[in-house]
Amino acid sequence: MKNIGIDLGSRYVKMVKADGENLEFMRYDTVSFYRQYIKRDKESTYIDVEKLGIDKDYKITATGYGRNLMSFANAEIISEIKAHFRGALRQTGDDSFVLIDIGGQDSKVILGKDGYIEDFIMNDKCAASTGRFAENACNVLGITIDELSQMDKDPSNLSSTCAVFCESELIGLMASGVELESIASGVNKSIAKRLMPLIKSFQADKIYASGGVASNKSLIYYISELIGKNVVPLENPQYNGALGCLPL
Amino acid sequence: MKKIGFTTTIPVEFFLAGGNIPVDLNNIFVCNNNPGNLIDEAQDDGLPRNCCSWIKGLYSVAVKEKAVDEIISVTNGDCSNTHALTELYTANGIKVHPFAYPYEEKDPYSALKQQMIFLGNALNVTLDMVYDYSKITDKVRDKLKIVDRLTVDGYVTGFENHLYLVSSTDFNSDLEKFSKDVDVLIEKAEKRHIEEKYVRIGCIGVPTINPSMYDFIESKNCKIVFNEVQRQFSIPSTNPDYIMRYIEYTYPYGVMDRIKDIKEQIKLRKIDGIIHYVQSFCYRQIQDILIKKHLGVPVLTIEGDTPGDIDGRTKIRIDSFIEMLEMKKKKGLL
């Protein structure tokens, strides 16, 4: 069986190509992907598999932010919740767990029980618990995402309720001489705190994290600290949605 | 004959018995050709961005559009923003009469009766005139019960149910025409072929500012069989005591009364899951905690802010929720 799973995220498009047991992982900038690999004719929209260098005999299953906005004539579309849940089933082999998915513009927490989705919750209309906030904070602080993910010492308390206003708060902290590491740690802790109302909605022994932001070790540290349980990032956190598009 | 606006549902017979025209300010705001513009106008006058859009719409239809001659402002039983809104109405020269549903009164019946007497004095009608007029409106309310039953049976859509029940707060300012419109809907609906849908959904919470959500929800493998607050707005109680009907009306009182009503309807209508609509910046968002705790069926909470189509994120949530319910129902887990 040849399958392709595609997760069309707000920041990146993640793709997993599966030929039997062999998996190949690919990632594209979302805007570039739409420009280069989506083609339209009068009636339909297609994923340009030829241009992506994929044989036509691959079955394409996609998920992502625009599920209800997108419709591809050559792909089956499944919901993000289903894709991420299935991805975690596949990556962990467990059937009961809480999955925290922190994406570029949204965060969601899924409760899996005995192999089905028991419940889920998503962040409200606020970007302060998402990857986009981390990315903006890095730009303001002049550090990389990798550097941010190492910073977990003496976190500054960030009080702004809004990811945009928080940028000026970061500048204010820098101006008042607070250590960069303390401010960056504060960014990680503030994302973790923002996720708490979502995460604390559900209880399970095993708690996994997915999404690009799950690679942020400091964030995982703070989430674990705040809930008093060990949170385990999945093996391929950023590709979890795409993996969930593949048959189990 | 005066056009008298009101900020939330109150006994409409007081207007009709006195020969006045009732105008639910919420309905004319959301049915305006450009409700977004009304919100902008309110914000231009200084109403905060982080304040409920309904309040801003209610401000503009009265102050800017001058849609009514006088206003009944519900100062108890709805949100406290209405207090500030009332002050703005008065400051803009609009005559306002307050109406307060009882809150934690020792004798709520007497308190409500007293409020009705005040309302009658303001509108120059007696309670007896109101009771008499209710015999006329009861016939229309009976028809609305048929609309609601046809919704449960699958003949009337969730949107139609929403529209007709929510419009009964002022009978679209024309009782006779409204009654005929309901007849037309019933006749049309009864002839429809029912499409079998797998999942049965109940919608609870304040009426949505984004009614397009109804068609989106029902484009999935599900049927909306319940609109909680809209049904309450249609005053479903048939208690022979007119005042008691407004004691049994749940919307202006505590959330636990609402939860009791919702649970009864979940059972009666065989509802698989609930979609709880909350308005951005509304105090009722807090009550979501108790709703989720007590209902005993899966609840999805969605939030709307300004008029228009529902956004992509809300669509994802609804989509996933229906998918989850389908899966659970197939496995016999609901």
Topology, pairings included?
The complex is a heterodimer of chains A (248) and B (334).
Chain A: E1 2-8, E2 12-19, E3 22-29, H1 30-37, E4 38-40, E5 45-47, H2 49-52, E6 59-64, E7 76-77, H3 80-92, E8 97-102, E9 107-113, E10 116-122, H4 131-141, H5 145-148, H6 163-175, H7 180-199, E11 207-210, H8 217-227, E12 231-233, H9 240-244
Parallel strand pairs in A: 1-6, 6-7, 8-11, 11-12
Antiparallel strand pairs in A: 1-2, 2-3, 4-5, 8-9, 9-10
Chain B: E1 3-6, H1 13-17, E2 21-24, H2 25-30, H3 35-44, H4 53-63, E3 70-76, H5 81-91, E4 95-100, H6 108-123, H7 127-153, H8 158-167, H9 175-190, E5 199-204, H10 212-218, E6 222-227, H11 228-233, H12 242-248, H13 255-268, E7 273-279, H14 284-294, E8 299-304, H15 312-330
Parallel strand pairs in B: 1-2, 1-3, 3-4, 5-6, 5-7, 7-8
Briefly, what is this?
The complex is a heterodimer of chains A (248) and B (334). With 248 residues, chain A is an alpha/beta fold.
Provide the succession of SSEs of chain B: EHEHHHEHEHHHHEHEHHHEHEH
Care to count the β-strands of chain A? 12
Tally of separate helices of chain B = 15
CATH topology of the largest domain in chain B: Rossmann fold
Supply the helix-strand structural class of chain B.
Answer: alpha/beta
The unreliable regions of chain A are none
Question: Can you tag this structure with a few keywords?
Answer:
heterodimer; A: 248 residues; alpha/beta; Nucleotidyltransferase, domain 5; 2 domains; 5-stranded mixed sheet; 12 strands; 36% helix; B: 334 residues; Rossmann fold; 4-stranded parallel sheet; 15 helices; 8 strands; 53% helix
Fold and architecture overview:
The complex is a heterodimer of chains A (248) and B (334). Chain A contains nine helices and twelve strands. Chain A has helices spanning 30-37, 49-52, 80-92, 131-141, 145-148, 163-175, 180-199, 217-227, 240-244, and strands at 2-8, 12-19, 22-29, 38-40, 45-47, 59-64, 76-77, 97-102, 107-113, 116-122, 207-210, 231-233. In chain A, α4 (131-141) packs parallel to α6, α4 (131-141) runs antiparallel to α7 and α7 packs across α8 (217-227). The longest helix of chain A has 20 residues, at 180-199. The radius of gyration of chain A is 19 Å and the shape is globular. The model of chain A has no long low-confidence stretch (mean pLDDT 90). Chain B is of the alpha/beta class. Chain B has two domains: 3-125, 3-Layer(aba) Sandwich (Rossmann fold); 129-330, 3-Layer(aba) Sandwich (Rossmann fold), CATH 3.40.50.11900. Helix content of chain B is 53%, strand content 14%. In chain B, the strands form two sheets. A four-stranded parallel beta sheet of chain B has the order 2-1-3-4. A four-stranded parallel beta sheet of chain B has the order 6-5-7-8, with helices on both faces. The radius of gyration of chain B is 20 Å and the shape is globular. Classes of the chains: A alpha/beta (248), B alpha/beta (334). The interface between A and B is medium-sized, with 17 and 19 residues.
